[in-house]
Structures are given as C-alpha cells and as structure tokens.
Amino acid sequence: MTVHPTIVDVTERIVARSRTSRSAYLARMRAARDQGPARAHLSCSGQAHAYAGAGADQAALATGHAGNLGIVTAYNDMLSAHQPFEQFPEMIRKAARDAGGTAQVAGGVPAMCDGVTQGAPGMELSLFSRDVIAMAAGIALSHNVFDAAVFLGVCDKIVPGLVIAAQSFGHLPVVFLPAGPMTSGLPNDEKAKVRQQFAAGEVGRDELMAAEMASYHGPGTCTFYGTANSNQMLMEFMGLHLPGASFVNPGTPLREALTRAGAQRALMLSALGNEYTPVCRILDERAFVNGIVGLNATGGSTNHLIHLVAMARAGGIVLDWQDFSDLSAVTPLVARVYPNGLADVNHFHAAGGLGYTIGTLLEAGLLHPDTETVAGPGLHRYTEEPKLIGGDLTWQPGAGESLNDRILRPASDPFQPSGGLKRLTGSLGTAVMKVSAVAPEHHVVEAPARIFDDQEGVKSAFHAGELTGDLVVVVRFQGPRANGMPELHSLTPILSILQGRGQKVALVTDGRMSGASGKVPAAIHVCPEALEGGPIARLRDGDLLRVDAVAGRLEILTDGVMERAPAPAGPCAHGAGMGRELFAVFRNAVSPATAGATVFGVFDGD
Fold first, then answer.
1. Which portions of this protein are annotated as coiled-coil regions (predicted)?
2. Is 155 known as a binding-site position?
3. Which CATH number fits domain 421-595: 3.50.30.80, 3.90.1150.10, 3.40.190.10, 3.40.50.10540?
C-alpha cells in the first residue's frame, strides 16, 4: 500500500527541519557505539563495586562475555499502574540468566499520579517530573556497565521521561515493559455521572468515594483512555513494546511471558549479538509520525502535544503543532474509548485492540510500514497478537475485523474522517484542542469571557451561582513558567454541568487539561502564556472570544485588548510548599509548551 502523500510530506518537512540537530545527535550515538561494551573499560575496582551485590551473577559479570541488562524501574506501590513492577526485577533476572546473560536494577525513577494530585498543589510538580525522570534514568545508566536496558514505566510523565533518557543513551537497545491495565470496574460513564452529581451537591462524599473505589479497584493502569494508556499505544506504534504487549492484564501468565520475552529480546538486540538495534535507529522521524497518527486515530491524550515534542527533541527531531494538525486532518478516528466513548481499554483490546488499529491504518497507507522496531524490521509485526500455547509464547495474526464496531472501526468506515486533535491560532495566540469527544454543535463557541487566575476561583464562582449564560472560562497564569502547567481536569465536572444546562461553554487556558479531556471544548496550552505577557494576560471579564475548532481559530473579538497592559501575576502562591521551592530553576528555564515545555534543549550542540 502506498503511503498517503500527507504522511510523506509531513515526514519530509520534519526531516528537513531537523537535519542539523538530528545529524549531530546521530554522530554522538555513533561515537558512543564505537567505544564498544563499556564494562571492560572500567577499573577492576569500579567493576568490583558494580558487581558486589550481584550474588550468583558475579562470575558472569566479571568475565565480561555475557550481556548485562540494565533495569530502570518506576516501581512504587502508591500507583496502581506501577504496583505490579515490584515483582518484575527478579522475573527479568531469571529470564536473562536463561538467555545466558545477567540483569541488574540500574536505578529507580520517581513516578507520581496525576489522578491523586488533581486540583492540589502537587500537580504543579507533575509536568516537571517528566524531566526529573529523564535525569534520574540518565544517572541510572551513567554507570556504563550495560549492553541493553529495559524500562519499567506506564503512566503520564513516566514514559515520556524514560523515552527522553533512552534517547540520551540511544546507542543502547531499549525495550519498554508495561504492566497492563487493571480489570474493568465501575463503567466510566457511571463514575463521571457521580462526579457531576457531587459537584452539583446532589450526592455526598460517601457516594463519590464508593464510586471512585469501584472504578479504581486493583493493580494496573486506570482503564480510561488517558495519558497513561496513550503512552502504551505510542510504544507499540513506535516499536518499543513487543507486539500486543500493552493491554494484557497484570498477574496473568501471558503478562509474565511477555515480560520475560521482552527482557530476552533486549539482550538479543545488543551489540554483542547479530541483531544490534539501538534505540536511536528505532526512534527516527518516521516513528514519531507513526506515533502522531496513532494518537489522532485513537483520540489520545492532549498531553502528548507537549510530550511527543520533548521526546523527539531529545533525539534531535523537531516537531511542531502544525505537524499534529496536518496529520489529524487525514487520519480517521477509528476508536471510541472513554472519554471519547463508553468503552474502556479492556473492551478496546477485546474488540481487536492495537493490532487491528495498526493493521487498518497500514492498509489505508497512513503509517510508515518500514520502521525499525524491537520486534524486527517493519511495523507489520504489530498487527499480530501474543498467545500462550502449551506454555510457549507465540504470535499469531490478529483480528482481521473489528469484533465490536461501536468501539473499533476500519479506516474505510471510521467514526469521523479526521483525527482527534486540532491546532487553533489567532489573536489570542496558539493553542490545541481535543475534539474527538466534543459534539459538533459545541465545536464553535462565541461568548463573553470570564477571567480567573486559578481554578479555585472557577469553583468558587460556580458554587456562588455566578457562571450563567454562554461564556468562555479563561484560566490563566497556569503555564509552565508560572506554576509548572498543572492539569485542570478537576474543572471538568463543573464545566460539564454548565454545558448540560444548555449553556454554550468553553475553556481557554495556558495550562493543561488532561488525557481525560472530554465533551467540553477546551483550548489549552495557550502560547504565549500569561506570565510572558501573552494576549491571555490582557483579557478582562466580558471580552468577546471565539473558540472555533472548525476553522482552527482562537480570536479576541473585542477591540483594543492588545493596547492594554498585561495583568500582573497575583501574589505568588506557587514558589514554595509541597516541594515547589525545589523547582524554581525549572520554572525559570522551561521552554514554551510549543517546544515541549522542557528544561532540555534540542541537543544539537548549540
């Protein structure tokens, strides 16, 4: 199948835009590769330090002949998605020994849960945790005693941070090992209804708590299609998971078999073998385009308009939001998973899952089929699904058709002809919107603005009965430089109630919304942000705004706004407390959201 011309054109312009920085990056990776396996270059004392705790593996490590696998883990048992990782290191060590190699935990990285910190001060550390994770993983691998690595991470900022680190050590093969989603609990639409009832004062906290516990009830990833599960999708589309590994539940024999196989595959890909496949060869411009197509085709998380940009820049590849928008225009929406539908990821997986999704997009010419992957050359392997037959792991052809067309459809008969993401530009700046869950009648909102400098102000105004009539809720001073760009997902129930009352309502913010962005139109990641004096800082209550997802416009319709002085940031409540004082250097150095909201540069040597 011929690749769609827009896919080709966008890829070619990314290649051209990235030529200098990508060439410098690849030169560094070649130099690192040419140094050969690192352990032999360490002093005897250095090696003894590295092997002292390895027990029965000491002899194999000391000879230097067996491949040594580094494990970078985001395990903690406060995150349901990461709790299963507690058992993974021993599983991986045994798998490595069976393959004639060794494995060591190289280090741990922090992992926080945005679901816990929504609407709380800790959310202001969330985005910055991605870059901390990258640095922590870099420290873990800096001992330079590993021939390959496996990364254990699932959730929102963890996978992007680990990918950034993997690119810094791009001469090494890397396989990502997921933990899988928890089994299905309370349906997501029922949970959302209870949240709205609580926000409206119709039910008490006891009922809310019961609903939440019935939804988030056991080990594994949350089952809605937010950033965590979008991460898993990306790792398959971009070739860093074994095929079909993403959505196998924790604690099952198949999950264990995939973990063992992933560890052994990482060793096979090292420079000590015949299939050397470093991550710098896998994560090229085509892989990132495939990831963006997957994001659009499945209605994935808006957070990846930031994360994918930062991930790509770590490998010298420069993406911009127009790339996302242009790819969205030709990518059909083939999946409906909550919040874009009623199904959860377990239902999606049962209907054909990522194997079917990749297959139908390949048939339509919407993916580069010839990318490198950890499973070998070509993306076609990712149309297969893993099976345990007689105790042996094998891959068989995946579903040739959707098993539930209310959840998953072919690219020839999609839910909608274009993808889930839209870039907005205009006199208010540039922003992005997730439109896949927004009903067409809400794609354009023209209404007076109501201005807030934090989300608590929105909640107070709602409970005071002040949010009446059609309105555009503007929440500013939420950008990366102001306070770390927190998600404002705790506003979703309130805005949904207003919309449900028949009001035309939209959100405009220089903050983030969420991987769970839903039915209320939200122009998010507005740049320039308010703290930089962007137009959003010049707005006042009553200014007429137009949020237009059809034309891709974000406009101030009131005259004279740009002649005003920008509003000053309020008294700083974000500089200290809950660890925020530790991140002042990040707030001062972070790039705009359009450049990935990262403290790292393009890594081009400039």
1. none
2. yes
3. 3.50.30.80
